[in-house]
Specification:
With about 60 residues, the chain is an all-alpha fold. The chain has one domain. The chain is about 90% helix and about 0% strand. It has two helices and no strands. Helix 1 runs antiparallel to helix 2. It starts with a helix and ends with a helix.
């Protein structure tokens, strides 16, 4: 996993956090929830190939 991916995840986290706070204070809690859900899905799509690679490595490790 590259450091660049970690910086991307941190940037999305900060952006979603600030956006969520702004939306909550303006009384739009539903949009804040959707923004945090969208951030979670975005990061999940970035991390999913690494999780798949991890499971493949574990499968190869225990294969007989």
């Amino acid at each position: 996993m590259s450091v660049n991916l970690l910086f991307k995840i941190a940037a999305v986290g900060i952006l979603v956090s600030v956006l969520g706070q702004v939306l909550k204070h303006s009384g739009r809690e539903e949009q804040a929830y959707l923004a945090s859900l969208a951030g979670l899905v975005l990061v999940l799509f970035w991390v999913l190939p690494y999780i798949s690679q991890l499971f493949e490595s574990i499968k190869e490790l225990f294969a007989l």
